[in-house]
């Protein structure tokens, strides 16, 4: 009986093996399928992350390009504004200069403040030409006007020569301070800033009562600003505002200080 019982147990054990192998195989197949699904999901998410990273890089690059474009646009706008301001300043100077010449002509013909009358003349035996009006056939006004016309045409080197000749021949002329100022403007327009600075300073030192002093002080501030000397520039702008508050140069200086 014990022998038969042992054989029965072996038979039952052998009969259990196929289902067990099947279960193990099924479990392995399931785990393999799940593993493949997890791997595919891992790969998919990795690709998604790569795509997002590329998009972020592209957005950052576009933002950087836009920032650089805006910076260039801002720089161009600032440059354009400075050019316009410079042109306005030149126009103001030209108007003031023209007004002064008209006043001189009016005084010489006796029409100042609407009072018309014959221009007084010296007796024939004592009439002489003033040294600051006519020298060796050279008329002061004509020489000045020619140099000024050259400046307005952009012939700065030619104008520079003309204004220097005017100062040499007519140093005591009423327009001497104007000529000195326009010498500085010639150098400024030629981008010779050191020479321009020296000539503008001469306007202030040699013609302290001249009408071009406010413009010279202001233009020194512009020069210092161009050279990166912001503190010196601000001092010049404040000086012209404090000393000559009603001048056109003071208004321009106020704009520069904003």
CATH class designation of the largest domain? Mainly Alpha
Q: Please give the share of residues in helix.
A: over 70%
As laid out across the biggest beta sheet, the strand order is 1-2
How many domains? The number is 2
Question: What letter string, H or E per element, gives the SSE order?
Answer: HEEHHHHHHH
Tell the overall outline: rod-shaped
Task: Give the termini distance in whole angstroms.
Answer: 118 Å
Biggest beta sheet summary: 2 strands, antiparallel
**What would you call the structural class?**
mainly alpha
Portion of residues in beta strands equals under 5%
Oligomer: single chain
Number of helices: 8
Number of E strands:
2
Q: Which whole number gives the mean pLDDT?
A: 79
Low-pLDDT segments, ≥5 res? 106-131
Structure in words:
Helix content is 78%, strand content 2%. The chain is an all-alpha fold and 258 residues long. It has a two-stranded antiparallel sheet with strand order 1-2. α5 (193-206) runs antiparallel to α6 (213-226). The longest helix has 107 residues, at 2-108. The model is unreliable at 106-131 (pLDDT under 50).
